[in-house]
Write a structure and sequence with these properties.
heterodimer; A: mainly alpha; MetI-like fold; two-stranded antiparallel sheet; 12 helices; disordered C terminus; B: Rossmann fold; OB fold (Dihydrolipoamide Acetyltransferase, E2P); 2 domains; six-stranded mixed sheet; five-stranded antiparallel sheet
Chain lengths: 274, 382
């Protein structure tokens, strides 16, 4: 059967994921259950003590809120900025392609020089002299996510049937109405997927927020690195890592549920308005 | 007053000329079919009228107002697309109400008008369905309803039956035509199917390579196609191109396949005539198993059902005749002797670029009746 053959094609990616994601994640999960008894040493009795301690720690609360804020702002900001770019590139046969090349080139710039560039521009002594580390970090992560957002939204915009837009125009709709009532609902699924992707990537991002935040903003990713590489408290570091994964998963599941429920309903121009 | 007036329309894609100096006037309530093979420019004309493309030159007037370069949303055209282009995320009601909401009509009026148009297209109970839950014919009726509910100045239909199967297509043609007549909607209908054009239009404009190849009232272009392109494209007639002697004589001493006796044209050729055709309808060609005086032997190359009888293609020399075989006694590979009477043939004269130039009362006649002496003379020289 063709279905079975199709599934065979999933074996390589399955092996890859099992080796480089599930197995390490299993190790982390396991390690998070053993409290530290010294630098790089853990006790032998499995408890949930690490979690109890972490979840009652105000520093972690702060980090979770910061991480969520930064990820949500980046996800929404980059999606909103990328949408018109992707739409223009998808619609245009000529200069839109050049915009695309310019945007994608940014992606191949390493995170460090990119962040340093922003640092020179934004932080104290720079052109704009921004003293708020969080805003600088957000600008940096939005910039870093933009290419991913454009590449993700491009097929979404290309899949939009042109004659639906023409039909809407012919029926007398303004550009705003067409965007709000035709383009957005029809691309919603893709937009949500891209926004979720950006959320997950930013929640785990370390380099850009660390460099631009100047070490002043506490994020889960920053804490994880601190515990695992500097303090060598493996119990705490792995616990933070599991919490980060859980956080991203919960947001992904909730967003998908809300989005599919909305689609199953009457949609934005529903009968309620008729 | 004409609801739609197109003059000197030129449409080009890059350097490629899609429509070349196209003129068309459509009277209020009239239905005109733009008929032509793919690439003939018919859809480009429609899209220019709708405002989806800007012509290189020419003007388009809707209700007397020049809209050539205006935006699509101000033209008040109703468009039915080949694949319907229904909004998949909206219900039937919301699809139809889309244009009314864009016009910011009061809710009560929107509800009334959508209700009325749903009754007109016989879909009163489906207003809460989504397009994906409808059959092809129902989707097509929703698309029509969405286009006519805004009371468009011009209804534009771009191969709207293309996605329907043959049986449904015939039913929908009658149906759409009835609504168009009933509501007296000025309509431009694009199709590549002559039968559909006959069913849908008061007038047919045949297009070829971006120009008008033939135009006229529906029954006229069918019974008397003005040039060879129209005859080939619109009818199953057989066309024989005449090769006349260079000396200007109108005589065909050995006749034509199917009538191998001297023939001549009754009238002198008009100035500007470069090519002359004899057009024979399938029902004027008689087929027999045995030869008769003047008949030509041929082989049946193909046959198909045509209503209650059969249409057969008989190859005589290099010419294929389309003939009617009411009894169905010929099948592929059979020998068939064909014969026809010159008085049942039509003559088309045209210039090199297909402009009709047929002389009034031009016809074929036996070259042995009135002008015997002349025939003797030319016959001897030929």
């Amino acid at each position: 059967m063709s279905g079975r053959r199709w599934k065979l094609g999933l074996i390589p990616i399955g092996v890859f994921y099992a080796t480089f994601f599930i197995v390490p994640m299993g190790h982390f999960l396991q390690a998070s259950l053993y409290p530290s008894i010294g630098p790089a040493e853990q006790g032998s009795a499995a408890t949930v003590q690490n979690y109890v301690r972490a979840l009652s720690d105000p520093l972690l609360h702060r980090a979770i809120v910061n991480t969520l804020e930064l990820s949500v702002i980046t996800s929404l900001g980059a999606t909103a900025l990328a949408y018109p770019i992707a739409y223009t590139v998808a619609r245009s046969r000529t200069w839109g392609r050049y915009v695309f090349v310019v945007v994608v080139t940014v992606m191949f710039t390493s995170a460090v020089p990119r962040a340093m560039g922003w640092k020179a521009l934004l932080l104290s002594g720079g052109l704009v002299s921004m003293n708020h580390g969080f805003a600088a970090a957000a600008i940096g992560t939005v910039h870093a996510s933009l290419p991913l957002a454009v590449i993700g939204l491009l097929p979404v915009c290309e899949a939009l049937p042109r004659n639906l837009l023409e039909a809407a125009r012919g029926l007398g709709a303004s550009s705003w109405t067409i965007f709000w009532h035709v383009i957005l609902p029809l691309t919603e699924r893709g937009v949500v997927a891209v926004a979720l992707l950006l959320f997950a990537v930013t929640a785990g991002a370390f380099t850009t927020p660390a460099l631009l935040g100047g070490g002043r903003i506490s994020l889960l990713s920053v804490l994880i690195r601190q515990e695992l590489l500097q303090v060598l408290d493996y119990g705490r570091g792995t616990t933070y890592a599991v919490i980060l994964l859980a956080l991203v998963s919960v947001v992904a599941v909730i967003t998908s549920l809300v989005s599919s429920r909305r689609r199953a309903g009457h949609g934005p121009l529903g009968q309620a308005r008729a | 007053m004409n609801d739609l007036a197109i003059s000197g329309l030129v449409i080009a894609y890059g350097g490629l000329l899609a429509v070349d100096r196209f003129d068309l006037d459509v009277a209020a309530g009239e239905s005109v079919a733009l008929l032509g093979p793919s690439g003939s420019g018919k859809s480009s004309v429609l899209r220019a009228v709708a405002g989806y493309l800007t012509p290189r030159s020419g003007t388009i007037r809707i209700g007397g107002r020049d809209v050539t370069r205006g935006p699509a949303r101000d033209r008040n055209c109703g468009m039915v697309f080949q694949d319907y282009a229904l909004f998949p995320h909206l219900t039937v009601f919301d699809n139809i109400a889309f244009g009314l909401r864009a016009r910011r009509l009061p809710k009560a009026e929107i509800r009334d008008r959508v209700g009325q148009v749903l009754a007109t297209v016989d879909l009163p109970d489906l207003s809460q369905r989504y397009p994906r839950e409808l059959s092809g014919g129902q989707q097509q009726r929703v698309a029509l309803a969405r286009a006519i509910v805004v009371r468009p100045a011009v209804l534009l239909m771009d191969e709207p039956m293309g996605a329907l199967d043959v049986k449904l297509r015939e039913a929908m043609q009658l149906y759409v035509r009835r609504i168009q007549r009933q509501l007296r909607i000025t309509t431009v209908y694009v199709t590549h199917d002559p039968a559909e054009a006959y069913a849908m239009a008061d007038r047919i404009v045949v297009m070829r390579s971006g120009r008008i190849a033939a135009a006229g009232r529906t029954h006229e272009v069918y019974t008397e196609p003005p040039n060879s392109f129209a005859a080939r494209f619109l009818t199953s007639c057989t066309l024989l191109e005449l090769v006349l002697p260079e000396d200007g004589s109108r005589l065909l001493p050995s006749g034509l396949p199917g009538h191998e006796r001297p023939l001549r044209l009754a009238k002198p050729l008009q100035a500007g005539t470069h090519r002359v055709f004899v057009v024979l309808k399938p029902d004027t060609i008689r087929c027999a198993s045995r030869p008769s005086p003047g008949s030509s032997p041929g082989v049946v190359a193909a046959r198909r059902v045509a209503g209650p009888s059969f249409l057969i293609a008989v190859t005589v020399g290099g010419v294929t005749f389309m003939a009617l075989d009411p009894s169905g006694r010929f099948s592929e590979g059979d020998e068939a002797h064909i014969a026809w009477h010159p008085e049942e043939a039509r003559v088309i004269e045209e210039s090199d670029d297909g402009r009709p130039s047929t002389a009034p009362d031009q016809r074929l006649e036996h070259a042995g009746t009135r002008a015997g002496a002349e025939i003797g003379r030319t016959g001897a020289s030929g």
